[in-house]
Design brief:
The protein contains seven helices and seven strands. With about 220 residues, it is α/β, with parallel strands linked by helices. The longest helix has 16 residues.
């Protein structure tokens, strides 16, 4: 690992342990390296940025791969969580995880990194108006059923062929019994969008990682 990236990795685990973990950082770094090696076009988007820790990691990884010009767009209400719906647990309440665009900028400034393109507002508004036409990598961290479903609805059609979408808190406990299942609305939204059998696969980590991975099929000739 690049020495600067190694330092960033350690800092994120120390200062942002509530939203990142070693498994998450490893999986994202591996995905970005693969996408870059294959020369895929498109922007990176993150839905649910909070204070920008994961966006900073993505920026750091892309820079280490010589991808300084690849854009990162982050989307967050910056009003805290919406109210959970019928498909969700009560793990998070309305108003929790409140942050601001300045928090995202400050997180990046700590490491001398340019801030991503920041899109404040609820997903159903911002994704309709301000989503890149081509997406190579999407990271969905909406926590709730409605937020996740909205993200899938808008992001999947814009993924480039073989582009990848990762869904945080996707707990397929049948495949990965260790996965943390505190936000069941996330997997329910994926099942509602994709149907069954689902093309989303569970990513297994060293700990209780709950990740779902979807890769856009190659275009038919």
């Amino acid at each position: 690992m690049d020495p600067t990236l190694k330092d960033l990795h350690a800092w994120l685990l120390r200062e942002h342990s509530g939203t990142v973990c070693a498994d998450r950082l490893r999986v994202i770094a591996d995905e970005l390296a693969s996408l870059t090696a294959r020369g895929l076009p498109g922007a990176v988007v993150e839905l649910g940025s909070y204070k920008g820790a994961m966006a900073l990691w993505i920026r750091g990884v892309l820079d280490s791969l010589g991808e300084q010009a690849r854009e990162i767009h982050v989307y967050d209400s910056f009003q805290g969580m919406p109210a959970p719906g019928a498909e969700d647990s009560d793990h998070l309440a309305a108003g929790e995880l409140l942050s601001s665009p300045d928090d995202v900028r400050a997180t990046h400034a700590t490491w001398g990194k340019p801030a991503p393109v920041i899109r404040p507002g609820w997903f159903e508004e911002t994704l309709l108006k301000a989503l890149p036409d081509e997406i190579t990598f999407a990271y969905l961290d909406g926590d709730f059923f409605a937020s996740t479903l909205t993200g899938l609805t808008h992001c999947v059609p814009r993924l480039v062929p073989t582009g990848v979408l990762l869904v945080d808190d996707y707990a397929d406990t049948a495949t990965n019994p260790r996965a943390w299942d505190g936000l069941p609305g996330v997997k329910r939204a994926c099942d509602a969008y994709f149907g069954t059998p689902s093309p989303v696969t569970a990513v297994v980590g060293e700990g209780d990682l709950a990740y779902g991975r979807y890769e856009k099929p190659r275009a038919l000739r």
